[in-house]
Amino acid sequence: MCTLSIPVNIFTFSIAINCCCHSNRVDYAFSLLATTFKRGFLPDVVTYTTLIRGLLSQQKSQEARLFFANLIKFREIQPDVITFTTMIDGLCKTGHADMALWLFRSMEKCDCEPNTVTYNTIIDSLCKRGLPDDALNLHSEMMEKGILPDVRTYSPIIQVLCSLKRWEEVGLLLDQMIHDMKISPNVHTFTILVDAYSKSGKLDDAKHIIQIMNERGVYPDIVTYNTLIHAYCSQGQMDGALAMLNTIRSKKIMPTSYTYNILVNACCRELKLDIAMDLYRKMASNGLSPTVVTHNILLHGLCQLGKSMEALTFFYKIQGLGHKPNIVTYETLLGGLCKNHYVDKALSLFRTIECNGLIPESKTYNIIICGCLRSKKYDGACKLVDKMVDCGFSSDAATTSVLRHLLLSKAQDPTLVALYQKCLH
After folding, report:
1. Which of 24, 77, 78, 108 is most buried when burial is the number of CB atoms within 10 A of its CB?
2. For residue 221, what pLDDT band results from cuts at 50, 70 and 90?
3. Could you tell me how far CA 320 lies from the centroid of its own chain?
4. Do 49 and 82 form a contact (C-beta atoms < 8 A)?
5. Mean pLDDT, the chain, as a whole number?
């Protein structure tokens, strides 16, 4: 456009700057800002707000704060409520909540009145910091000023009050929200309540919330159902959890990998491995790919039942299908193999960890060292301790305890004494 002498103005530049910021190229955006000055254009508050948002989206909060401060200092713009709210939101999200609150209180000095979104941003930050009373005070303040709250004002306060089991206040706030302010809770608000009741063992209350949702025409989503399934599983009610999975399907809601992971984990915990494997196979028929978490849960379940060799076979099978293990996968298998006296298999597996692009951690070493000690492979344990120490790790309480126990029965064994001294060091 510029080369062809097609007229451009500050709005054209602002659109291009916005595109650069959304493409995570804030450096290009600032180059365009410089070009606006060269062409004699004067950037407006929208242009500068866009640049601030771009800096914050790339976690450049320090640069955003400095840029914002200089804009005010040199009176380049008169910040509006959107500019302030953008800056406050960025500060809250990057862990500078106190500074965000200070900026919030500074708005009046700049003749800028906070709006509902500004208050919601600060209230949400206070709730995430576990300060419900401060959030409630701010909620009262906005009401006194005639700034109407919305569902996003109430949801974080309800969530933090639920986490603190302040049920009476939750009830009062919901009553005010629904009856006084005529604000209908959305699916997120209801899910907060389902989650809170579930975690407190109030499963009947959680189910009642689902019933209320349906009556009000606010239909539960997969997050809500996942929360309820988790509650059933936590209370050992596998039939209820599996029935909930069927309910999800009947409502044409697609379960996620997380849904199946909750169920598979609960089945393994209840030692119902056949059901767990059946659920694992059903994931594929629902178009879902098992995650590394799914595989780790199943491997742990097999090891818990003493089927460590089946677990090893399953491990090689999923590897052959292109699923990549993580260090937890290896630690699960190593623990299972050592526990079931397949230490040579565990040592062989341990040697393949780095070949798969992973680095053993302190826990990994301690698992295999404990296995070697319990199987009287003291020389192997000694070499592993040397390697562990070279990597900057140390023995944990389990390894030290096994060594102490062995020393009590074999106090004169020089290898064990040397090993114990190395571990203590």
Report:
1. 77
2. very high
3. 30
4. yes
5. 89
